[in-house]
Amino acid sequence: MYLSDLEAKKLIVSIGHKMSESRFVTANDGNLTVRVADDAIWATPTGVNKGDLTEDKLIKVRISDGAILEGTWKATCEL
């Protein structure tokens, strides 16, 4: 069973802030993703500090082809 979109986005933002506050990452380091369907994830975009994350900065990506399903930010090349 997967988290809802809203639950996934809240979790990513919360973890990103904690990682930044704890200095586990600096600047734009790292990526966070949460799978919400067989072929979809919510992910942090490229170039965003994890301490500055907000739900509207996240992107929903189709796993099979990397297409952005929701959001306007650019996906990281690691996806």
Termini separation comes to: 22 Å
Q: What order do the SSEs take from the amino end to the carboxyl end, as H and E? A: HEEEE
* Uncertain regions spanning at least 5 consecutive residues: none
DSSP strand count: 4
- The value of Rg in angstroms is 12 Å
Please give the order of strands in the largest beta sheet. 1-2-3-4
Shape: globular
Number of separate helices:
1
Mean pLDDT: 95
Structural class assignment: alpha+beta
Share in β-strands: 15-25%
Nutshell version of this structure?
This protein is of the alpha+beta class. 22% of the residues lie in helices and 20% in strands. The protein has one helix and four strands, in the order αββββ.
Notes on the protein architecture:
It is built from one helix and four strands. Helices cover 22% and strands 20% of the residues. A four-stranded antiparallel β-sheet has the order 1-2-3-4, with helices on one face. A hairpin with a 5-residue loop joins β3 and β4 (68-70). The model has no long low-confidence stretch (mean pLDDT 95).
How does the SSE layout of this entry go?
Elements: H1 5-21, E1 33-37, E2 40-43, E3 59-62, E4 68-70
Antiparallel strand pairs: 1-2, 2-3, 3-4
Features:
four-stranded antiparallel sheet; alpha+beta; single chain
